[in-house]
Amino acid sequence: MGSFIFHATLLWHAQVILDELPMLWGAAMEIYLTRVGGADHGSTRLKMLMIAISTALSALYLSYPNPVLHQVAYATMQAVLITQVVRMFKRLPRETAEQVRIREECRTHFYKSIGICLFAFTIWNIENIFCDQITTFRSGKGELIGLITQGHAWWHLLMGMGASRTISVMIYISTAVRQPDDFEFVTMLGLVYVRPKTKTTPKRGEKPRKDL
């Protein structure tokens, strides 16, 4: 919603307060969530640390609104998030063949999300650096070329897809630590989400299936 308001108004305050700063606060919240189920689960100290870091970055960016500062801060927080999620993989149970399979599926979704986000970040920076050249190139080329060369639009679309996949991975890991056999990944129209597994009742005389 904040990003929509910024792009609808193109106001500087809307860009900073409703679009860019929420990216930093959201990343801090994701980092905190990677500790769910771990030694720091529910830690007041960790909560205050994340709030303090986000507040300090917000104050610094409002005082020195340099886009590079925001990009470096956001990229650093994402790097921390990636390392924490990789650590979370180690807590996933691997006692059955099904648990091993879905653990690998989880890793695949996560690394795909990183690839999608890096691709989006690359497009965003290419457009920022070569904005004038791209604008000149699309001039007079028609609506189709103008549409598919909107790098900022691709940035939002791809980042949304990558972030959605990352969130689904974090949801699965957080639930699977305690309930490894109760949830599964589902893909629909290229988007991945987590849902409870459907419990099937065996027919009369039929034995329940067990993992190999």
**Unreliable segments of 5+ consecutive residues:** 208-212
Report how far apart the termini are.
47 Å
Largest sheet: 2 strands, antiparallel
Average pLDDT level: 84
Helix and strand topology:
Layout: H1 2-9, H2 12-33, H3 44-63, H4 67-89, H5 97-129, H6 131-138, H7 143-148, H8 151-176, E1 183-188, E2 191-196
Antiparallel strand pairs: 1-2
Helix pairs in contact: 1-2, 2-3, 2-4, 5-8
Q: Would you write up a description of this structure?
A:
It is a single chain. The chain has 212 residues and is mainly α. The chain folds into 2 domains: 1-91; 97-198, no CATH class. The chain is built from 8 helices and 2 strands. It has a two-stranded antiparallel sheet. Helix 5 runs antiparallel to helix 8 (151-176). The longest helix is centred in the middle third of the chain and has 33 residues, at 97-129.
Brief account:
The chain has 212 residues and is mostly helical. It is built from 8 helices and 2 strands; from the N terminus they run ααααααααββ.
Essential attributes:
212 residues, mainly alpha, two-stranded antiparallel ribbon, 8 helices, 2 strands, disordered C terminus
